[in-house]
Amino acid sequence: MALRVKLDHAMDSKKESRRRRERMRIALPAIVQSKENAETEWSELTRLLDVTPFGASFSSSHLIEVGRLVHMTLPMPRQMRCFDHTADQYKVWALVRYVKPLPESAAVLAKKGEKFAIGVAFVGKNPPEGHKAQPSKFYDANLQDDSSSKLGIRSDITRKDAGGGEATRQELREGTRLGMPVDVILEVIAYDGSISALREQTVTENISRRGASVFTALDVAKGTRVRLTSAHHQISINAFVLGRRVGADGLPRLHLKFAGEQWPLDGIV
Asked: Are 249 and 231 in contact (CB under 8 A)?
């Protein structure tokens, strides 16, 4: 009898754990805020695509980097909260885990200017220590186990890639960039998501599935959103500027990290 009680309790615990991990598809409104650096800060009213006690996904007109922290305010169901169970609004810090372009068939979203699906993991009521002083810092996520609400985060340590730009550990694991020229059109994306007048035809210095280094005559700051288009590869990819540097040859380069998509290297590597 005692064994039967233990088995029933274990099964109930597994069901409860599975229930808490299941994503609820619910179109809750949410305010998402991000301070990318001392000069750039934005706030967007959007809606959730789905949610769990430990994370959510939402549609957005902003292209947000993986590893960035955002602050969210939403009317979270109380039974799914990890804190502030009696508050009207659930205010939680969240870490961006993935960014995906919304399908073109999402016409209703497109009318609102929402172009991306953003997946986040909830971090907690307060941001990590030092985030206020360094809002542009990126973080790695370390999920301790699937059934836990604990999410360990640590500052992302960057290293130099073969072209001299910063590369994340994930990029380093996925291979060295190929030193090859690819004809591309580089366009700067304005704050509102439109394509600005800043545009040039250039070539890459090196390229990988996750990023590239391109020669440039544009004075573009770190964190700027750009679009890289190749007629030969028949692809157009959004990217973030990780940095700008002048090489020993006196030519400036932009170091880019692709957002949400990968450059097609099949048949090359």
From this structure: no
Cα 64 vs. chain centroid, distance in angstroms? 5
How confident is residue 249, by pLDDT bands cut at 50, 70 and 90?
confident
Calpha distance 174→168 (Å, rounded): 10
**What is the DSSP secondary-structure string of the chain?**
-HHHHHHHHHHHHHHHHHHHHSPB----EEEEEEE-SSS-EEEEEEEEEEEETTEEEEEESS-PPTT-EEEEEE---GGG-SS-TTSSSEEEEEEEEEEEEPPTT-HHHHHTT--EEEEEEEEESSPPTTTTT-TT--EEEEE--TT---EEEEEPPPEE-TTSSEE-HHHHHT-PPB----EEEEEEEPTTSSEEEEEEEEEEEEE-SSEEEEE--S---TT-EEEEEETTTTEEEEEEEEEEEE-TTS-EEEEEEE-SS----TTT-
> What's the whole-model pTM score?
0.57
pLDDT of 56 > 90? The answer is yes
Give the percent of the chain with pLDDT over 70.
71
Contact between 157 and 172 (Cβ < 8 Å): no
Q: Is the pLDDT of residue 87 over 80?
A: yes
